[in-house]
Amino acid sequence: MSKRPASIVHRVLERIFPKAPDFFTLLAEQSRQVIHTTDLLIRFMETGDPDIGCEIRKDEHDADTIKVRNIHILNEAFSTPLDREDIYRAIMDMDEVVNYCKTTVNEMDILGVTPDGYMREMAQRINEGSNFLAKGFSQLATTPERAAADADAARKAERRVEKLYRRALADLFQGQDYLNMFKRREIYRHLSNGADRMAHCANTLHDIVVKIG
Known about the structure:
mainly alpha
């Protein structure tokens, strides 16, 4: 007889204090989506294939669906295992990395810009950083101290993108084709901005690790 009242009390408490959503899993899933998009970005920069550009645009819609779902869950959550602001920043920054991948491809199409070596290498470094982020988020719940090293590695990848960005501009503005200069500068800038958001997300990951510790 004692089990039944206990069960009722348990159900009542669950209604008053619902279980916190598993944001560790949700953020890890979103980070894997970023890898998928940046994988496609590398392939696009290697081939210039417009079909891959279409895949990136579709990928952005898929990523947006994940972002909207995660934000909704965050808004509805009574409690969270992590700081709400950190969760929100991680969700938004990961989504912005994907957005910049799409923007890069869209503007290359509109401006008639073909991929070059700098774009390929910048895409590779963004993908590298995204892989470190995904690795960090995937072990955040179990081994957060390792996630801190992954956050540092992602920031290092962003710094490499920034160095490439400066080198690309220096080489670009040595020529005389000013229209081409301004077109390519826009593409380099989008890639640099995507890397910046990756670094912001790495900072958030590191903040989470510090707070967990």
